[in-house]
Amino acid sequence: MGIVAGYCVIGATEQVPTDTSISAILMPLAVMLVGAGLVLSLPILSRLLARRVARTTGSLSLSLAMRRNEMDPGGTLRVAAGLVLLVFAASLTQGVLIELNQVSKNTSPVQLYTMALEDVPVGKEQALGNVPGVRGHAILAESWTDPEGEEGAANVNVVIATCDQLRKLASVVDNCVDGRSARLMIPDRLYDVYSKPGGQFPFHLRNSAGQRRVVMVRVPRETVRYHDGSTVQMAGSGDVLIPPSSLPVGFLPEENATLAVMSSSAPDAVRSVLEGIAAINPVIEVETPGVDTAGLQQIAVIKTLLTVGMVLGLIIGVAAYLVAATDRAVERRPQVTALTLLGARPRTLQAVQVAQVVLPLAIGLLLAVVTGKMTESGYLVTGGGAVFWDGAGVPLLLVSALGVVVVAALGSLPLIGRRIDPELIRRD
User: Fold this and answer.
1) Do residues 93 and 116 share a domain?
2) 354: domain range?
3) Integer Cα distance of 277 and 114 in angstroms
4) What's the pLDDT score for residue 33?
């Protein structure tokens, strides 16, 4: 806990440590030591708690339960250790998922997707723009230049979109008028050197029938203030906004044209958009600046594996608890029978059985939640990410711990029978 607390204190200061060879050794060592310490401290804590409660309580059931735990603290280790370690591992697993999300997530609030327009099936541009999760779409194109001409010839970029489409793509759009071309002005960015009012640039267009046309686009004097609020800009300052209605019906740019789609940068939104694009055309090549799509797929696989592991761990932990609790109940049948012959009621004995399991288990689970969150924070600090304190996971852990306690209590009730078998105490 000293290692974990040290990293938590360092994370609260401005001098945040990075992932070094020292932390790569200390942090796994701390995780193993804390996990082992939780298990080994349960009998000691159970005995101390039982001794104190037994001295102060006035309840017969609670007194019997605590005296049992005081005389046999190792029984608590057998019954509760698996469930305590499960809650501890759940907290640490959550930290692993958070760090994986930080590594693959785009730091920008929006995510841009670009694909070559020639790879988009004919008539599917609008369908790609209506994929669930997509905020808006536009066509980006570049003016034609003679491939045999001199290098660095003048050209200009255009954005083919309506004002409504542009507003869906950007956080700031001012002075946009439907049906009118304009130059895009992005604050704090220089204009394209070739984007001067009055300049004319040729664009080669083609329709689905293979017919070609050449359209001259004049750079207008009107400007539209534009900013999409992301680190990866869809368009540049000086690009010309062209309304789709100004192009011949059915014709689209032929060369150097891309379809740009934008959505939220949340991992679930990115996966939804990519799945929607793949449903329309599974072989289309999509570029996603700022995000690692392979990392997103790996995270989905890891989350599934961790979820399956935690579910299996819960099943095994509960099964191990039931086996251990049943074993302890069988061992104590002579004492339970003696208490029954002395006049103890079955309800009293059931209360004893529940109390002697639930109280030590609750203390162990509370320690697991506290140490688990501290270990998770230390792990996140050494990872060098932006998230150190995961407060959102605390309610889930507390609910899980409460569920474990309820399962343990319900599992203890049927272990006390109503029949008296004198043979169990004849030898005594």
Assistant:
1) no
2) 2-105+297-426
3) 11
4) 92
